[in-house]
Design a protein that fits this description.
The chain is mainly alpha-helical. The protein contains six helices and two strands, in the order ααααββαα.
């Protein structure tokens, strides 16, 4: 693991351009993008313990509780339907999921786990628990709970204020 250097404020925002909160939010953007990159790399490594990729793992997770359509999985993950369709087809070809009739829609099949898919997902979840327990112990439960609340609040505000295209 590489050590992340202490971040320094690279940009000093003139008071006329940003409020103090706006400047801090702006300074937060790059570290959050870097964090996403680190989470993605960790996710790829975790999924690889069961011979999978992060995209395949996330798709398995989305249908673990109950079957879902490709469109539903795509919406939950914030991905395109086409990209999830490609992953769902690969998972089916490998026997980890199967398509089932959808009583609510004639043409949109449901994706559901097979026993083999459930076993594979269990392997990934075990590796993820081990990783998150280790990382979580280094940060601490209280700090992580606080970060989670802030991220949830920031996400809500961004969704509410996102520019409409």
């Amino acid at each position: 693991m590489s050590t992340i250097p202490k971040r320094q404020h690279a940009v000093k925002w003139p008071a006329s351009r940003h409020t103090p909160a706006g400047a801090v939010l702006t300074d937060l953007i790059i570290p959050v993008i870097q964090l996403e990159s680190h989470f993605s790399r960790a996710g790829e490594a975790i999924a690889a313990t069961a011979g999978q990729t992060l995209a395949r793992w996330l798709t398995l997770e989305m249908v673990a509780g109950e079957p879902a359509t490709v469109a539903e999985v795509a919406r939950r993950l914030g991905l395109t339907r086409q990209s999830v369709q490609r992953i769902a087809d690969l998972l089916e070809a490998d026997g980890l999921t199967e398509y089932a009739e959808n009583p609510h829609h004639l043409t949109s099949k449901l994706v559901r786990l097979t026993p083999r898919g459930r076993k594979t997902l269990g392997e990934i979840q075990g590796a993820q628990r081990s990783w998150s327990n280790s990382v979580g112990a280094r940060i601490g439960e209280a700090h992580l709970r606080h970060a989670s609340r802030v991220i949830d609040q920031l996400t809500r505000v961004l969704v509410e204020s996102s520019p409409k295209s």
